[in-house]
Write a structure and sequence with these properties.
It is built from nine helices and twelve strands. It is of the alpha/beta class. This is MBL fold metallo-hydrolase.
């Protein structure tokens, strides 16, 4: 059973082994906020049990008063019904409006369920998708959860891993929960719904929130610091500018995907991705580049 580790004053993180996904809990006078809820109903129930154990170690009557979803991917959202089953059907679910739009579209047309199976035998099924709880407290730029003696500030710094990423900031604890905008278990995942051209600029909005002492909770992997985020921003920036350069020289999308220089750049920075993992990112950059920055493919 996963347990929570306190990383700052009344801020705990649980690294769930399935998907190596992080769940963060923040406590205040009014109760607890749970950030992200895992990948299926069974995983959510196990998470709920761990949160109940954590709450029992705090003041009597401590309850979860809100949840926050960092973005719309299934491994971060599908456990919410288990939390509502314990703390009420009106338990608020906070998210960015882009996250709500993506989840609404996904619930209408979910496609095949992910194949990943946990060590416990859990896997995401259609029943899990059918039980999806859509966010009911959404914002466009910024929001917050009031815990009485502290605020959890919610910020949409821009598009990156998805269209609806948020970061949750606990200013008095010097903690920033970054979701999958930052990953330390591996390089940031550049999927078919990512925005690699904008992602570096999005992290440019996040970086001023971070001090050298700030604890940054990534979506996957161990907590990191400002230097780590800055390095990851640099790699994303080099990737985006490399693809922009290829497009401006008339290299076709497929030739750019097969580009032989993905392991290094003229700047001497080695990119952390395997070439096979960059196909979606390259195609997304070509889609998002303005016409003026693309030439016709070379013959």
């Amino acid at each position: 059973m996963s347990t929570f580790t306190e990383i700052a004053d009344r801020v705990w993180v649980s690294a769930r082994p399935w998907y190596d996904v992080n769940v963060t809990v923040v406590a205040g006078e009014r109760g607890l906020v749970v950030v992200d809820t895992h990948a299926c109903l069974a995983a959510g129930a196990a998470l709920r049990d761990d949160v109940v154990s954590l709450a029992s170690s705090l003041a009597p009557g401590t309850a979860v008063v809100a949840t926050v979803l960092t973005h719309a991917h299934h491994d971060h959202v599908l456990g919410t019904p288990a939390l509502r089953a314990t703390w009420g059907d009106d338990l608020p679910v906070h998210a960015h409006e882009g996250c709500l739009a993506e989840l609404t579209a996904w619930s209408a047309d979910p496609g095949p369920a992910p194949e990943n199976t946990s060590a416990e035998g859990w896997r995401t099924t259609q029943d899990d998708v059918d039980a999806l709880v859509l966010p009911d407290h959404v914002f466009s730029s910024a929001g917050f959860v009031d815990l009485g003696d502290r605020l959890v500030e919610l910020l949409h710094p821009g598009r990156g891993h998805t269209s609806g990423d948020l970061v949750a900031v606990v200013p008095d604890a010097d903690v920033v929960v970054a979701g999958d905008l930052v990953e330390s278990a591996g390089p940031p995942a550049l999927g078919p719904d990512s925005f690699p051209l904008e992602w570096p600029l999005t992290l440019d909005v996040v970086l001023p929130l971070l001090r050298p002492s700030t604890v940054v909770v990534p979506g996957h992997g161990t907590p990191v610091d400002r230097d780590f985020v800055e390095t990851q921003r640099g790699a994303l920036g080099v990737l985006a500018e490399t693809v922009r350069d290829l497009a401006s020289r008339g290299v076709s999308v497929e030739d750019a995907v097969a580009h032989e220089g993905w392991t290094s750049t003229d700047a001497g920075l080695t990119l952390p991705w395997e070439p096979a993992d960059l196909a979606d990112a390259v195609r997304r950059v070509y889609e998002h580049l303005p016409r003026s920055q693309k030439r016709l493919p070379l013959l």
